[in-house]
Predict the structure.
Amino acid sequence: MIRIPPPSAVRSSEITPEGLYRNRRRFLAEMGIGAVGLLTAGYTQAKDVPASADGLPLSIAKKSERAGGETPTPFDTVSTYNNYYEFGTNKDDPAQNAGTLKTRPWTVAISGECEAPGMLDLDALLKPHAIEERIYRHRCVEAWSIVVPWAGVPLADVLKRFKPTSKAKYVAFQTIYDKAQMPQAKWSGIELPYVEGLRIDEAMHPLAFLSVGMYGKTMPNQNGAPLRLTIPWKYGFKSIKSIVGIRFVEAMPPTTWNKLQASEYGFFSNVNPEVQHPRWSQKSERRLGELFKRPTLMFNGYPEVASLYSGMDLRKFY
Ligand code: MTE
C-alpha cells in the first residue's frame, strides 16, 4: 500500500493522491510508457499553480460565438444538472459530491503512436496556448441540451505538439479513477475508468476543443475539472471529463457507453435527428430552462463537420 501522509505533514501542493498515482502508474504500464517516457517529456512544471484552481477567472485571448446567437444557459443550471457517474448517477449528485476531487497537481499521460510521449503537468500542457472562449451548443443523448461558453484550447493544437505518427488513426482518452476521491463510483453501474475516443481527423477538426473552464472561470469539478473534451457535434457522453490520459492508437479504442450497450451508443455518436436511440426519438430536445421542445439539428447545427463522414452510412456508423 502506498500511504498518503496527513495533510498537516505535507503541503497539499506536494501530494499526488494515491489513487491518481496508482491509476497513472497503471495507465503508463498499459500504454508501455516507462521511465524513458517520463524523462524525455522535455517540459518543465509551470510555476504558481494554485492548490485549488476552481472558479478562478481565466484570461481569455479570443472569443467566438458558435451557437446561432443563443444566450448561454445560466451558469447555475449548467453546474448543477450534470452527468458525471463517478460522483453519482442523479443529475444533482456531481455538484454535491465532486468537490472531493483534487484538481491540482494534475498530470496528463500522453502515449502511443507519437514521437513525443510523456507525462505532462497540466500547466505545462496549457502554457504554449492562448485560452479561447467558444460558445457551443451541447446536446446530451438523453435529449436535453444547453448552451455553454467554454474556455479552452483547440484540441488539435495540443495534440500536434506530440507529433502523432502515421499509425495514429484514433485518439483514446481516459478519466481519472480514484475510489478514495470518488466514493460514489462503486454505484455508477459503468466500467471505470471512463474512456472515450475519436478518430484522428475528428480530433484534429477545428471545432474539437479541450476545455479548462466555462463562463470565464476555471472549470467546476462537476463539469470535468481540470480539463475535459468538448465535441459540440456529438452527443455529450463523448465529452469525457477530468482527463488523465491521451493515447494515439491504430485501432478504434473502446468507449465506456459502447462497452455497456453497443446497440444504444455507437463509437461515432454524432448528433443525428434521423437515427433514433432504441428507446427514444432524437428528433427533438429540451433546452434546459425552456418549456417547449425544439427540433434537434443534424450534427447539432455544425454542418462543417459533414465532410468528415462523406461516404459513410450514418445509420450504420451511429
Ligand atoms: N465523463 C466522465 N468521466 N464521466 C461521466 O459520467 N458523462 C458524460 C460526459 N462526460 C461523463 C463524462 C455525459 S453522459 C455527458 S451528457 C456530459 O459529460 C455532461 O457534461 P456536463 O455535466 O458538463 O453537462
Q: What stands out?
A: The longest strand covers residues 144-154. The pocket of MTE is lined by residues 82-86, 140, 175, 194, 223-224, 236-237, 239-242 (CB under 6 Å). Residues 44 and 145 are 39 Å apart (CA to CA). The first helix runs from residue 18 to 31.
